Amino acid sequence: YYFPCQRWLAVEEDDGQIARELVPVDEAFVKKDSENEGQSPATLGLEQKAKSTTYSVKVKTGDKKNAGTDANVFIILYGSKDDTGIVSLKASKFNKNKFERGKVDEFTVESVDIGDLKKIKIGHDNKGNSTGWFLEWVEIDAPSLGQCLKFPCGRWLDKSEDDGAIERIIFPAELQTIEYIP
């Protein structure tokens, strides 16, 4: 089995992910023989892209006193076939200082085909100075599937607030699901 990567694992490079889920590709894409100098990285990228799904994950921190967090936030997407495993939300597309009061942060999550998105688990490691976090909602858009789902939360992820949980399982709000042509 061949699992090519050809991507950065660095917070300050590419899409900011420091862990990647790799998909196996046909050995013809990797093996080099005398007639065929192997496939180009572009072709290889398309082969991998065909086997994976890119999700745009937007996270809204509530507009309450001390709602933001400095802790390390993670998410797991659960589908009808599989789940993504733990994905660290490290590099926000909009904000250098992420998960601040009243702000929306956007992250890119790539994974193998997990099927229809059923639920998410989101939480943090409770590390840092101000760790408590008020999560308003999470929105997950999968352009290749033509689906945008909203996961309302409206609760604290804080050991000293609400029920003391620092991770939550959230289901999509069916009435806020948007279907479109992939």
From TrEMBL:
<dbReference type="InterPro" id="IPR036392">
    <property type="entry name" value="PLAT/LH2_dom_sf"/>
</dbReference>
<dbReference type="InterPro" id="IPR001024">
    <property type="entry name" value="PLAT/LH2_dom"/>
</dbReference>
<feature type="domain" description="PLAT">
    <location>
        <begin position="1"/>
        <end position="23"/>
    </location>
</feature>
<dbReference type="InterPro" id="IPR052970">
    <property type="entry name" value="Inner_ear_hair_cell_LOXHD"/>
</dbReference>
<protein>
    <submittedName>
        <fullName>LOXH1 protein</fullName>
    </submittedName>
</protein>
<feature type="domain" description="PLAT">
    <location>
        <begin position="53"/>
        <end position="171"/>
    </location>
</feature>
<dbReference type="Pfam" id="PF01477">
    <property type="entry name" value="PLAT"/>
</dbReference>
